[in-house]
Specification:
heterodimer, A: Rossmann fold, eight-stranded mixed beta sheet, four-stranded antiparallel beta sheet, 12 helices, B: alpha/beta, Rossmann fold, globular, binds adenosine-5'-triphosphate, binds magnesium ion
Chain lengths: 335, 315
Amino acid sequence: MANIENLLTIKNLHTSFRIKDTYYDAVENISINLNKNEILAIVGESGCGKSTLATSIVGLHDPINTKITGEILYKDLNLAAISESKFNDVRGNDIGMIFQDPLSALNPLVRIGEQISESLVYHTKFTKEQRKERVIELLNQVGIPNPERVVRQFPHQLSGGMRQRVMIAIAIACKPAIIVADEPTTALDVTIQAQILDLLKELQAETKSGIILITHDLGVVAEIADRVAVMYAGQVIEEAPVEELFNNPKHPYTRSLLNSIPQMNSENEKLQVIQGLVPSLKNLPREGCRFSSRVPWLDANTHEVNPVLHEVSPGHFVRCTCWKHFDFESAEGGN
Amino acid sequence: MSFMQIKDLCVHYPIRGGFFNTVVDQVYAVDGVNMEFEKGKTYGLVGESGSGKSTTGKAIIGLEKITSGSIIYEGKDVTNQRRERTSAYNRDIQMIFQDANSSLNPRKRVKDIIAEPIRNFLKLSDQEENKRINELLAIVGMPEDAKYKYPHEFSGGQKQRIGIARAVACNPKLIIADEPVSALDLSVQAQVLNFMKDIQEEFGLSYLFISHDLGVVKHMCDHISIMYKGRFVETGRREDIYQDPQHIYTQRLLSAIPNIEPATRIERNKERQGVEARYQAEQHKYYDENGKVYALEKISDTHLVAVNINEKGGK
Ligand SMILES: Nc1ncnc2c1ncn2[C@@H]1O[C@H](COP(=O)(O)OP(=O)(O)OP(=O)(O)O)[C@@H](O)[C@H]1O
Ligand SMILES: Nc1ncnc2c1ncn2[C@@H]1O[C@H](COP(=O)(O)OP(=O)(O)OP(=O)(O)O)[C@@H](O)[C@H]1O
Ligand SMILES: [Mg+2]
Ligand SMILES: [Mg+2]
């Protein structure tokens, strides 16, 4: 293996939102790092805190109702504690973000061409002509047909898939060292999705950037990630190199996720899955194994009192001890 | 024996423009589709965004005008009766919509949403109706007190189940399910798919299952049609499509499915690039000079492919 060079280190990160007068952790004590030339995938069900983690890293949370503690270390900066003006230099130039919802992230009143060249104005010394060229080049790269026409259009004139690709063009415009991509291909059909994933790979080969890829599509993870962190209820509950996670999943939640993918099971067979949902922020359990309510048939003493991550093999971490006692057979009986 | 046949279905939208607002062009959203449905079977409809899948579903159920073609239901031509509120066709063919959010009336309680088809088609007393609603909620795995709530009080997966409860209320023969799980999380998706299979077994339902997720389609469907620009490029049993895809567009779709085996990713990527190159090079074999898909040709009893007859042989 090539030498591993650390790019971003997250330590004991808590991100909490205020509801009425109380702050609730949506991200609870996450410590994880991202290396150069690595794709780190973050997976988990809706509401588990993936986007919150992403917006914490790029500093785009609402400052009035959000509280962040802990450290996000990049170069000699702690991104969790720097000023907004300082963050403006970092964002776009060093860190690019692809948002989950492209419609709300694009300005409806500004033409596509201008929105892409905006960050080039801010972060490069390109002339107007060079910027124009770069914008067309970027749109070509993300597979948008007829870019000369598209630069003059407004967001509402593009299909969902095209808007998503414009977002990606903006995020990679300045070849940032870190790309945070929140569900970048969820709105796209498989052929375009494959094209975008190839593009991210190519870009990475060129710039050696680190990519944090948030998705709930485990197929996408298996296609391009190097390492995977699985989140549940604001915590990382399992983390492993990609092949290890798919070949040797440990935590009941990870195993349930893998078992819910239809293509893995043979046809006609029932999908094995743990019933229930991630609780809402206010109702999240704050003590003990957060997953215990989903597996009520497991004896209470199979869980740790304060579950922590255990390294079960090199680079493979699992929270709590309940995985040792879990199997789907009893899941059937328990329901 | 099939209980329903769709023959040469076309839905064209006129595009108006110019000084006199005349019809200047047509969108051939659905352009010559044939299908038949047998009891207890699931039929998949997949294809690119904008290829006409939803339009096909809506035309069958009567939400979209049919330009030409016919629908035969239990031996009777029902093409022009699809909109009659109380017809047997309307009772027996139901639809689950892509967007559960906008298909459930936000001002109605769950009880009234589910009861709507019951009130249209079955003459039940209040007591019987209440009993039936409880049964339906139990079938979709929701508590009885759900019936007094409004749609916004439920999660996406739960709303989708309410849509299903409404669709199955009058024991339909065919349910058209338009992307029923695409908005859902994996584990919720699995719960809904399991449930759809359960009620199929119990009631002998058939599904027209519209989706762009080829993994889900493989899991659910006995028979699959691949749609491209309003026409079928290929249709066959699941095995025909997944093990022996013939049309370049089908091959392209299949090669782009993400696979959950990280170990084989490089190999598969090469394969995909190969298909992609062939797709660029061999278009003329699969589309005529106007880019239109050729007519379907039979290559086995169950498997049909749209190829240029003159180019046959060279695969
Ligand atoms: N600004 C906010 N104020 C209050 N609660 C919030 C806010 N943003 C998110 N939440 C809550 O925090 C939790 C985590 O949300 P987050 O958007 O990070 O989830 P996610 O994992 O990205 O889900 P999805 O897959 O649906 O995008 C959820 O319970 C959500 O309702
Ligand atoms: N009312 C309309 N007027 C004109 N064109 C329309 C209308 N409704 C649909 N179309 C066009 O018909 C074609 C088929 O649309 P349809 O919604 O059936 O596609 P689809 O296969 O369901 O796509 P998706 O996967 O994105 O849902 C598209 O080109 C669409 O733009
Ligand atoms: Mg999110
Ligand atoms: Mg559709």
